[in-house]
Write a structure and sequence with these properties.
The chain is an alpha+beta fold. Helix content is 28%, strand content 24%. The chain is built from six helices and eleven strands. The strands form three sheets. It has a seven-stranded antiparallel sheet. It has a two-stranded antiparallel sheet with strand order 1-11. A two-stranded antiparallel sheet has the order 4-5. A hairpin with a 2-residue loop joins β4 and β5. It is globular. It starts with a helix and ends in an 8-residue tail after the last helix.
């Protein structure tokens, strides 16, 4: 219990201390989103914008119905066992949680296809500069595990509009799904918590409003 208490205290502290504290949204730039389900934070980016195109990794033909290919990708990174075996939180298995806490190289990217997203109470919009957007896309690209032909590796998701992709990176209690999102933003120079294992470490820095 002491460890859990110390962990939660450190997570709260990390969420309250800003990285890139001088960052401000540019007056013009590219609009991205962060979205939370209360446990997990995903990053929403356009498929094609600012001279970047991620449709070579997130391909229309990967979907059973290519017409569901979105204008945007909602991207989350996480533990493969938890992702594959837990379409709802009630399905989470103890052994998957234990593996996630201790550490595992079994990681996946979860991609939802989204069309023309707008802000909601659970989704916040923010702008980044062209250079920051390129840095974010580079980081996302590095997170895809590729096969010997240099292609991303899709796997079935929870429904027709989403898929998993094999990912790079080691999941642990020190590097969670929310750390991945926070790290991508922090490395691009966007203000977020210095350590973000919990969703608030990311979401608190982006004001939300009804769409």
């Amino acid at each position: 219990m002491l460890f859990v208490g110390l962990y939660m205290a450190a997570a709260l502290l990390g969420s309250l201390i800003p990285a890139n504290r001088d960052w401000r949204e540019p007056d013009s730039g590219l609009t991205l989103f962060v979205e939370t389900n209360g446990v997990h934070v995903s990053l929403i980016v356009p498929m094609r914008a600012g001279g970047e195109d991620i449709s070579d990794l997130i391909r229309p033909q990967d979907l059973q119905n290519p017409e569901l290919f979105g204008t945007h990708a909602m991207i989350g990174w996480g533990h493969g066992g938890v992702y594959r075996n837990s379409p709802t939180w009630s399905d989470v298995r103890v052994r998957d949680v234990a593996s996630a806490v201790v550490g595992s190289d079994d990681s996946l990217l979860h991609i939802y296809h989204v069309n023309n997203p707008a802000p909601t109470p659970y989704r916040a919009a923010f702008r980044v500069s062209a250079a920051q957007f390129r840095a974010i896309i580079r980081d996302i690209r590095r997170s895809f595990r590729l096969n010997t032909a240099g292609e991303s590796i899709p796997m079935p998701g929870y429904g027709p509009d989403n898929l998993f992709y094999r990912a790079n990176g080691r999941y642990s209690a020190l590097h969670t799904c929310n750390n991945w999102t926070g790290d991508v933003l922090r490395r691009a120079g966007v203000k977020t918590g210095v350590w973000t294992p919990m969703p608030g470490g990311v979401m608190r820095w982006f004001p939300r409003r009804d769409g």
